[in-house]
Design brief:
With about 290 residues, the chain is an alpha/beta fold. It has three domains: about 70 residues, Orthogonal Bundle (Arc Repressor Mutant, subunit A); about 90 residues, 3-Layer(aba) Sandwich (D-Maltodextrin-Binding Protein, domain 2); about 110 residues, D-Maltodextrin-Binding Protein, domain 2 (3-Layer(aba) Sandwich). Helices cover about 45% and strands about 25% of the residues. The longest helix has 27 residues.
Length: about 290
Amino acid sequence: MDLLQLRYFQAVARREHLSQAAAELHVAQPSLSRAIARLEDDLGVPLFDRVGRGLRLNRFGAGFLRRVDRALRELDDARRELSDTAGLDHGSVAIAAETLLTVTELITDFRTEHPGVDIRLHQSDAATMAKQLHTGEVDLCLASQPLTGPNLRTRELLREDVLLGVPEGHRLAGRERVRLEDVADEPFVTTRPGYWPRELTDRLFAEAGLQPDYVCESDEPGATGYLISSGLGVGLVPAYSRSSSLHLPGAWMHLDAPDCQRVLTLVWRADTYFSAAARRLTEFAGAYFRDL
């Protein structure tokens, strides 16, 4: 059993798919398959159940994965700790966010001050971010809804109103405020379940006893404003996104609905090593959004 086998096992266990894990690891699928088979021979038990052409982590594999995650996380923490002793400009930080548009300017400004820090970005929904924190795939998450899991710490970065956007020339254009009932029959642009705009829209409609008509469900929350401006439908857009895209045609108004807000938070694990780069980015993000 060697470290490379454990890395391979962890990737396959997370995806339960050999070809996807091989692509992630940049190795040939037959080589990955042989490495997993050798590991199972060394351990004396199968770690996966073979289901058709796929894999499913079994009870031996699930128990082994918990230990492997812990061991590899300790090694990764040691590497980051050693990197910190060499100075901040040799560090790295991995970040997940629901939309990369939220972090683009933040990362640009941060890299200007710390050009040597290696930054990796992931776009993920809330459930995926929670898993990425648990497995150590990311150090920080920028989330607009609560993340669940043990030993998570949260810092509020921004609390803002969420506006209703309508296309240019819409019958409601020019209004400062509207009720949800005023747009109940309108085609709505939103995201897939798991992203905060969809969770908020679903909640507001359910509380009002109404049923939304979704005509677009995307995986990019930052695209909603552009789709509204194209005339596809109406939708919810946070005030921060609207203010950073003033060139978008359309009308934007407040919605008379309870708690029609977005709370942007920074989330990290409290039970693992928090690198100097991650700490500095946390402080930088707090100041960045405070100055907005």
